[in-house]
């Protein structure tokens, strides 16, 4: 299987030497479950899109510091591309910004949440267990870094997992799109470094709380397995 990574942001220059770029993070995560996976990166933030949606077997939209509602010239073409993927029933996964953009492009709503920033480790309760999930869990935890949230689902979407802080944390659209607000590709070391760089933006109290949460378990391997299962089903 060949996965096209629609790259919507760059890792901060202070961190890229140690952690690499987002496509490398996703390749490492998903190859832990399927070493035969191939990846192609499309710099959609710079206007680079596939010439044909069937160049690859499936797509993954990365996270971004950009809001889906911001006036950036590459966002409307990306939303149109998402609608084409949806019409073609192309297997697609969205992470954080990708999760929000898929919802927004297909008729839902993403806004800056009045709950503020979510950082560190967050936990989610499963609301529904889909048939494609071979090893379901009642709950799972992942690393997060977001202040925007999906607040209205698009037609054909259902919530698979939620929390009080993020009610629409894991969403499936029909049978071909799966999205997560959290970041399964993040490691705790990367999350810690990112929180330190953004400590001033987060505020001392929230940053300290985010750091403390890193002692909690995360379930990135289980979520990676779900992602591969969903794409291969």
Automatic annotation (TrEMBL):
Name by which UniProt lists this protein: GMP synthase-Glutamine amidotransferase
Keywords: Glutamine amidotransferase, Transferase
Molecular function in Gene Ontology: transferase activity
Source organism superkingdom: Bacteria
PANTHER family: GLUTAMINE AMIDOTRANSFERASE YLR126C-RELATED (PTHR42695)
Family annotation (CDD domains): GATase1_1
Species this protein is from: Microbulbifer donghaiensis
Classification of source organism: Bacteria, Pseudomonadati, Pseudomonadota, Gammaproteobacteria, Cellvibrionales
Gene Ontology CC: cytosol
Domain Glutamine amidotransferase: 54-191
């Amino acid at each position: 299987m060949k996965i096209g990574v629609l790259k919507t942001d760059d890792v901060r220059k202070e961190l890229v030497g140690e952690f690499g770029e987002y496509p490398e993070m996703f390749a490492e995560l998903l190859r832990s479950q399927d070493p035969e996976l191939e990846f192609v990166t499309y710099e959609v933030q710079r206007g680079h899109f596939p010439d044909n949606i069937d160049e690859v077997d499936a797509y993954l939209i990365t996270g971004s510091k950009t809001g889906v509602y911001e006036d950036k010239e590459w966002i409307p073409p990306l939303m149109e591309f998402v609608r084409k993927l949806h019409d073609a029933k192309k297997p697609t996964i969205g992470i954080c910004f990708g999760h929000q953009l898929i919802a927004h492009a297909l008729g839902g709503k993403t806004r800056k949440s009045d709950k503020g920033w979510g950082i560190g480790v967050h936990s989610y309760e499963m609301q529904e267990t889909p048939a494609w999930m071979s090893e379901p869990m009642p709950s799972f935890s992942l690393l997060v870094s977001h202040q925007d949230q999906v607040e209205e689902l698009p037609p054909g979407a259902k919530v698979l997992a939620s929390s009080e802080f993020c009610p629409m944390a894991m969403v499936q659209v029909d049978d071909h799109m799966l999205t997560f607000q959290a970041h399964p590709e993040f490691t705790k070391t990367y999350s810690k470094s990112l929180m330190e760089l953004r400590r001033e933006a987060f505020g001392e109290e929230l940053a300290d709380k985010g750091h403390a949460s890193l002692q909690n378990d995360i379930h990135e391997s289980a979520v990676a397995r779900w992602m591969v299962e969903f794409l291969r089903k």
